[in-house]
Amino acid sequence: MITQPIQWLKRLSSQLNPTFILGVFLIYGLGQGFSGALFKVVADYYWKDVQKLQPSLVQFYVGICFIPWILKPLWGILTDAFPVRGYRRRPYFIAAGVIGTVSASVVAMRGDMPHSAALMCFVGVSASMAIADVTIDACIARNSIEVRSLAPDLQSLCGFCSAAGALVGYLLSGFFVHHLGSQRSLGLLALSPALTILLGFVIYEHRTSGSHNEKKQVLERVGMTIRSMHQTIMYPQVWKPSLYIFLALALNVTTHEGHFYWYTDSKAGPAFSQEFVGVIYAIGAVASIMGVIIYHKALKDLPFRKLLYYAQLLYAISGVLDLIFVLRWNLIIGIPDYFFVVIEETATRITGKIRWMPMMVLSTQLCPLGIEGTFFALLMCIDSIGALISKMGGGVLLRVLHVTRTDFTNLWLAVLLRDMLRFATLALVFLVPKGGQCEGLLPSEYSEKNETDIVDEETLELVPIKGKTEA
């Protein structure tokens, strides 16, 4: 159990760049994992206890905070095609870190901030995470294309890092909220972007000349990239699975804020404490790690369509546990709330991760060489729009059913409608290709054409401790 993960990491490092592996740990583990988990819990308590907003409005605000992730193609084009003082990567890491550090510090220090201003600060924190995420995603997409046999392993590594970081973040979030308060705890969100600033200074990168002709070539390359993206997305092998992933995310209407308010209500709900709410999410992070392990050990060799069908089916069935919990049927059959919520959270997170991992592998296999960074950002943008529709749809559902801070009468109906949509998604699996997860999905002539069009492709790496490491 100890040596096998170490050997796995050594194998990845030997076939890929060790500094790339380190970058995955920094961005996915510390940024998306730890900070993302802390952000989720602390922000929920901030909206509920400090701003005192209704759950439906908070659900809308959560969707707005997701907008920077929809703009990932823009961040990808900026970092790929518009260098600053000859550098393509460093300035954007530094800018992302500054935005996140300032936004988190402002919302933590101002006690009388209007909820609209606080929302803008939260958008800044989210933008910081999204911009920092774009570069590492481009590296992952390229490595997945060049070494297709490692594509599932790379997604497993990202899943491990993200889930392990989230586990630590969730475990500490309830403690911080209880002892520091939700607003002061928001200051801890400045840690990750501050380290992102440092990362921007230590990234090893060749400096370009920045001449007039080069700038003209950059603009021409942007136009060529956009045309290539349009041509690629028009292939049935690309738009059909992309459409499935979009619809699978959009139809997965989330009612998280309604659940959170119900969790902490002393009359209608189980009245979980702040610490236990963090423990619930931490258990979910452990379950996510279990889902990654199950995928990595037993499922990464299955065909896309077969795996996604059964994963979606299990995910829909796990959602029924939410309905049982909200209706309090668990008490009728003699299962205490504290025990049943562990069962529900574990089942949902494991099946959710098993459902998500092949979607990410599928996305990397749809990217052509030469524009893999920007095109992967485009696919992630499509996915983010689907997730935004899911969050906004949940807000509309909670508002229509009149689920408020104190009235949870129709929360069970919202959960029932959500579960029906999850089962309906099974009818769309025909859009997913039948091929294996290590097979190329693009037409061979188009992949080869893009590969030959690569000009002056630079490699991003961290500064090695001893000497220069070849990418």
TrEMBL record:
Cellular component annotations (GO), alphabetically ordered: membrane
InterPro entries: BT1, FBT, MFS_trans_sf
Matching Gene3D superfamilies: MFS general substrate transporter like domains
Keywords: Membrane, Transmembrane, Transmembrane helix, Transport
Coiled coil stretches, renumbered: none
Pfam families in alphabetical order: BT1
Residues passing through the membrane, by range: 20-39, 59-79, 91-111, 117-136, 157-180, 186-204, 243-264, 276-295, 307-329, 369-390
Membrane topology: Multi-pass membrane protein
Primary location group: membrane
Cell location: Membrane
Entries under NCBIfam families matching the protein: fbt
Similarity field: Belongs to the major facilitator superfamily. Folate-biopterin transporter (TC 2.A.71) family.
Protein name from the UniProt record: Folate-biopterin transporter 6
Organism annotation: Crotalaria pallida
